[in-house]
Amino acid sequence: MELTRRELVAAFLGSAVAASACKRESAPRAPIPGAVVDRAVELGHRLRGGPLPRAEAVEPVDVLVVGGGVAGLSAAWRLKGAGVKDVRVVELEAEVGGTSRSGRNAVSAFPWGAHYLPAPLEDRGPVVRLLREMGAVAGVDAQGLPTFEEELLIQEPDERLFYQGHWYEGLYLRVGATPEDLAELARFDARMNAFAAARDAKGRKAFAVPTALSSDDAEWTALDALSMAEWLTREGFRSARLKWLVDYACRDDYGAVSEHVSAWAGIWYFAARQNGQGERSEGFLSWPEGNGRLVQQLASSLPPGAVSRDVLAHTVTPGEQGCRVDALDARTGQPRAFQARQVVLACPRFIAAHVVEPWRRERPSWLGAFSYAPWVVANLTLSSPPASRGFPLAWDNVFYESRSLGYVVATHQLLRQDERGPTVLTWYLPMAGADVKAEREKALSASYADWEALVMADLRPAHPGISAQAQRLEVQRWGHAMVRPTPGFVWGPERRAAAQSLGRHLHFAHTDLGGLALFEEANWFGVKAAERVLAELDVRSESWL
Amino acid sequence: MNKTLLYITVIVIATCGLVYELVVGALASYLLGDSITQFSTVIGGYLFAMGIGSYLSRYIDKGVAQRFVEVELAVALLGGLCAPLLFLTFTLTDLFHVALYGSVIVIGTLVGLEIPLLLRILKDQLKFKDLVSQVLSLDYLGALAASVAFPLLLVPKLGLVRTSLLFGILNAGVGLWSTWLLAPLLGNPLRLRVKAVLLTVLLVVGFVLGDRLTTFYEDQLYADDVVHASSSPYQRIVLTRGKRGFSLFLNGNLQFASIDEYRYHEPLVHPAMIRAGKVEHVLILGGGDGLAAREVLRYPEVRSVTLVDLDPAITGLATRYDELARLNGHSMTDGRMRVVNADAMRFLTEGTQRYDVVVVDFPDPNNFALGKLYTTGFYKLLKKRLSPDGVAVVQSTSPLFARQSFWCVEATLKAAGFWTQPYHALVPSFGEWGYVLVAHEAPGFHRPLPEGLRFLDMATLEALSQFPPDMGPMPAEVNRLNNQVLVHYYEAEWRRWN
Questions:
Q1: What mean pLDDT do residues A212-226 have?
Q2: Do residues A362 and A507 share a domain?
Q3: Where does B3-220 sit in CATH, by number?
Q4: Rounded mean pLDDT of A402-418?
Q5: Is the pLDDT of residue A260 over 90?
Q6: Can you list the residues of chain B whose pLDDT is less than 50?
Q7: Interfacial B residues in 219-248 facing A (CB < 8 Å)
Q8: CA B245, CA B323: separation in Å to the nearest integer?
Q9: Nearest chain A Cα to B481, which residue?
Q10: From CA A524, how far away is CA A74, in angstroms rounded?
Q11: Nearest one of A147, A95, A513, A88 to A292, comparing CA atoms
Q12: Does B260-497 carry CATH code 3.40.50.720?
């Protein structure tokens, strides 16, 4: 089906963007050089083909970590911390990091996915340990709470919102808000602060990072049964602006609108990362390459040669003494095999269900509960920062009337006064429709020329003339970027069932086991799986969790 | 046809024509300086363009009256909007010269068409000798009226923007009443009338809003004569000269006035110089005018001065512009000077050399980019580059006009781990101005003040750290890269005074 340019923009970004972008489209411009850069789709689909060749020679290893994303690298990092020497990580892609991967060009490093980490509230757990290892923790304050190096905290101005020709400070659209709107916002903030301060009889936060530390009292977990949109209605929140803010939050962290996100997860976004006074402790940590910096820190902690890239592990067969893992060299097609005493399978459930040999014969019952939002991320290199009307260029720049999340400026955190010169914008589009399969097909069907048209149509109303500044555009499609915390999922039985080890030699780690696609979850489950491995190997080490 | 009305028309046309010429000439002198050149080129170009217009009138054969009204409306539009549009071009683009001479040529050409066309319309009403005599004498009379009213009445009462809009309205009025006056000669006067009315409404709206437009532009206007004006990628640089010496403006903000700059620069530099353990290597951040360097170079122990300023245009001006070089004592060409055109924050991050004295003389924190230079993040970098017994000083805006901003800078320096000593001095051109002296630990006094200072002596210096109650310490948050509270304080406080 051939869509007109305007229909294309309307289909992906909404009719408001289509109307204002097409209004501003002047003479046709030369195409922007660039490409769609992902390749995981083709590689991953090999898993679904017929039987794959098996290697004769088997490489023995103590611990094999399958998957070099944040969960897998965190597991290897934890094992290294306990002194386990013989650890291998195999990664299907040419680079580690998964959805926290980053890229770099002559102008700047830039993220391909996750791009910030909320500064941890308390001085405990593996994330603070990692941050301390990388020199990001400046110290602890009088209350014993961690403080972070100033240059890593997101600099002001951090957020702005574009609405009808003008940029405004912050992410709540205050301009034109009625007193009723503002009263609802204040009531909503008060509710979220109360949720943030709430603790159960055991002293656990009602909403904690990671989710595993949250209270399991029904008082709060009951919220998981209804959608965030239903909760808003039930509590009498009717303001369209507030609904927008909540939807934005759900799209930002979960890749879905509030109708498809559980109220528990929706509230978690606003309540888990603050202290109950609406203060987000020290704010957010970010780097030009986004969470790619955290990936680099995890990877650099491992001994040289510990990570093998371009290795497609396709079959994990648990046995009496360990697991056999069959793989392909993704470049040459040559088969490889490993015999590991312990395996950490650090990949999402929809892959695990294909890879674990017994599950191929009998589909695990929990599989249907996991659904994943597709995302598209584009990095646009510009000859100079985009010109704009109203509040100045911020770190996060959001379009009120678009289905995209706007863009983040990779050079924002550079320590410099003079902000002119080339920069890279990272543009995010969560495919937030209800039917993830249809959304995935839609994302994969668009060509580079389509993505170029979409990205520029999104940016042009806010930045007339930006086409002339554009130097290169690269587009990454993520078919399964984020697990969606749909109603009933986070506190449902399937998620917990999927996290159980299979026998004594095969353990699972991935952010989807936490129900939320976040660095802290991936790191938590990676460390947790590694600690199960340590227990099986009889290695004594105090828990990092 | 009513002759009296026609004669009035001639006078109005003539007055308008000259007023546009004067508006454009005056605007060019205001904005570019060098009024002799500006007026000569504008008047010459305008007269030449009028000649083009007169010549072109021969190609208008049919519908002379219709064309006359159309020319009136075009002159009303372009002449009426010339001042606001030229200001806008100057403020927003680098195309001011193009716009200036473009408007001179176009308006001049249109004005040049007016009288020949009118003469042809009237040629059947009068004998040739009477026609020429009456029209031309009235034309010159109108010119006299304009040239007398312009400096005495129009510019002082209305300003340039509203003057140009007012005469645009008069011109549009001429167009409008001509549709009645010349009705017998016009095919379809109604359409012209509608156009004339719409145009008049547009210009009247502009005139009513003119005050606000003028407020927007007044940053670009200076009380004194502009002797140098240039634009760099970073800022607009203007030097003016008047009764009280000359002054430097960056983006319309006064940087110094030669009459009292010593009252700013002596307190900026000497308290740090006399309290530092050594003064061999001095770093100046900002201060591209070379005036702080002049004070530093008074000390014979100084072996090197590194001046880091973002803008090569300003350091170049301080080096090569005679009067400025004289004022800064030719500091920029002193053998001990090293001028680095770089981003101060990057300069501190990328190097390791330590300095005995650091003079931090940035513009006030009126935007987020400048605000970064007043954060703990920046001051920690500064601290790493200051010798163990070194002393630095930070220009910290006015403790009177922006009291919380001043104390915010002080609190931020303390939070970065510095010992601090706030003080202030009265600089008439600026008002009460504030500084914060900082060091790793409380420094002693290591050398006397140099000879020849006009403002500072030891007794004065001691008094400068006394703050009267209306400027005294007040609570302020620490300015960090991730909160930039200072920019918000600063904006709120200065808004009260402006």
A1: 96
A2: yes
A3: 1.20.1250
A4: 94
A5: yes
A6: none
A7: 233-234
A8: 10
A9: A155
A10: 8
A11: A95
A12: no
